[in-house]
Amino acid sequence: IQHPLETYMDQDPLSPPESYPMPDTGLYHSENATYNGYAGKSVEEKRESLAVTRNTLDLFSSILNSEDDQKPAKNELTDSMLENCKQSLPVIQGIVESTVDDEGLLFEALSIHDELQQIISRYQQMEDPLVPITS
Length: 135
Description:
It contains five helices and no strands. The protein is mostly helical.
C-alpha cells in the first residue's frame, strides 16, 4: 500500500542513530583506539612514549648485536623485548597519525617506527633464515 507524501508531512522526523553517519561495526573502536587515543595527548606525553620506545629499541638492538650465534638466544628477556617492540608499533603509528603541528616530533616518530619494523624483521630473519624479510 502506498500513501501520498502529504500523509507523512505532519509526523515528527526520526532522529538519526547515535553512530550516524558511520555505523558502529566494532572494528573502529578496537583497531583504531590506539591511534585516536593519541590525538588528545600533549607533546610531552608523545615525547615520553617515543623515549620509552627508543630505550626498548636500543636495548633489543644491543641484545641482538651481542649474540655470538646467528640465531638469537631464546630467553625471557629477548622474548619480552620482541613483544614490547611489536606492541610499540601501533602506539608509534598513532603518534605519527595524530601529530600535525610538530615536524620534529613527526620525523622522530617516523624514524622510530621504521627502526622498530627493521629490528623485528631482523629478529625474525635470525630466528628462521629461510623466511623472507617483508617490509
